[in-house]
Description:
8 helices, coiled coil
Amino acid sequence: MRRLFDDEETRKMVNKTRRWLENGLQKSKKGVQRAWQEYRQEMARREREKDEREEFEAEFRYRDRELDFHMLISAEEASLYEQAKQKLQEMKRRSSDPQVHKEWEAKKYLTLHEHFTERIQYYFRRRLSDPVALHRAIRYCERQIEYAPVAKRAYQMDPMVTELPEHPGYDILVTLYEEAEEWEKALRLSQEAKEEGWGGDWEERIQQLKAWADAK
């Protein structure tokens, strides 16, 4: 009596079934991924609109003989800066040392710079899982770069600082542009960071970005 299926027929059927299941799973997986991508895009769009409607509560001003700077800041940022101003006054009452005054004057201005750094790092770490994190990481990078002229002067007035450190806003935004293969934007920012004197391996990054841009 002939078996219903011989070994070769069984193997073919099993392989055909496996391929069918794999194709179905792949299609299902792609559908789920597409749905999540659309969801994230919609959530990011809503958050961008919310951020664009954000009402700034105050205007930050800095002025010296070479720089007249102003920037709109949120209520949270205004509160942080006010606390830093109060801390400076407290230190002036406690110490008559001009070096201490300069150090805390610098800290006052660096309060917003450090706040932007904290926000950048928080959202950058979540950019692959949170639908709005990438947008907010970029936004805070841009805000910190906008604030860079004041941060630069603050570091220069601090007697404890001998050179400019790395700038998270420039560094992370260049990295994000690299991930998106936006070589020209990444190159422009890298050149700007280098020209402004911020720490980092900018020359190496610039050469690599030029190579990637030329190979595009």
